[in-house]
Each structure stands twice: as C-alpha cells, then as structure tokens.
Amino acid sequence: MTPFARLHRTGAPLLLPNAWDHASALALAAEGFPAVATTSLAVAAGAGLPDGASATQDETLRLALTLGSGPFLLSVDAEGGFSDDPDEVGEFARQLAAVGAVGLNLEDGLGPVPVHAAKIAAVKAAAPDLFVNARTDTHWLGEGDERDTLRRLDAYQQAGADGVFVPGLTDPARIAALVRQVQVPLNILYSPTGPTLAHLTDLGVHRVSLGSLLYRRALAAAVETATGIRAGRSPRGAAPTYAEVQALARAAD
Asked: What is the number of structural domains in the chain?
C-alpha cells in the first residue's frame, strides 16, 4: 500500500485541500496537510478556459510538473481524463505519475459506464501505483439516483478504482449507506451546508475533499478587499507578508 493510500485507512478521513498554484499548495503543506490536490475549476479559470470540457490537459500536466516534487503527496483532478480513448487516458496518467503525482481524480460526467471503467483499467495498467479516485456525477449533475450510483461505483471498483467519489451527496443517511455498500474508501465533497467534518468522520467517510471552495473563497476575498479599499475601509483579516510569500518560492528550491 502506498503512503497516499494509507492516508485513507487511518480511521479518520483524509481532509484533502485543493490548491491552484505553487504558492497555494506550499502554503497548505506548511500548515501540516500531508496531501494536496488540484482543482480543475481553478486550472481552467486561471487559463480562461471552461471547466469539464477537456480543454486543460496541457495546463493540468504543467501544474502537476510544478507541484509533483513538493513536500506533500499530490493528487491531480483530471476531469474525465481529457479523452474518451482509454489508452490516451492511461498515457496521460503515466505522465502524471512520472512528474510525481500519486493520485488521480477521474470523473464520469454521467457518460457510459463501460467507457469510464475502461479508462480506470487503462490508468491502473499504465501507472499501477497511482491512486485512482473514481468519481460519479449522479448527485452532482444528475438526480441522485441511488441505484445508478451503486451500479456505477460497482463497475468502477471492479475496474480497479482505489477509491470512489460522489460529489453533491450531503444526506447523512445516504452517505452512511454508501460507506457500508462500497468496498473501497468513499470520498465526499465538503459542503458548508452539509455535514461537518466531525459528522462525516462519524459516518465512516474515508476522504473529504474541499474541491474548488478554497479557490472561490480566495477570489471572493480579493474582490472584497479591493472594493472595501475603494469604499474607504481597511482590509480585515490576516494576510501573508511579501517575505512570507517569497519564502514559499525559495522552499521549492
């Protein structure tokens, strides 16, 4: 079992924050997070491209190259693998592993189950040690059909997924039921209006991702600061100094 896989088996959920650049990843690692993920929304937004449209393969690999040698375990959000050809997805996963990534989040977008299962199998063949977190969008994009959710997760587990991810699922009873019904670690996306981290721990969840939340809050804080100064208000809250941000860059060296 790899060190990243072991983080899913400690008895408490792996709280996985999602970074969008070198500075955000290093700052999170400095706060003691042993693993950091990327977020496809931030990668796409930073490049002026749409998320979930297979438009950011180069940007995703470039960020992985930047972060893969950092003092943390890196998991990469790769949308649906940027292709419907399993061999191409497997090759992309091999490239991610080669630059230091230890995990891969792969979403089905409610596409055909056999296609997504084939992608998972191809990734495990090309990069056996890469932890594949197989995401189904039945709750994120669909109606939350539990039978379809289980059908998809079962196929993905059989294809070799190391973990399964159901973003958009916030009902405690349904989360607890899924924990009992799947054979691999269950990942839930944290929601400010959903169960707390402590509650998710009690439900038996193995991994809690923050997704794009940190990036979206950072954008909101930047706009709030600028508009506040324009209105004559002093900025509130803490901010790293220039020297502290510079130190993050030196840490990479």
From this structure: 1
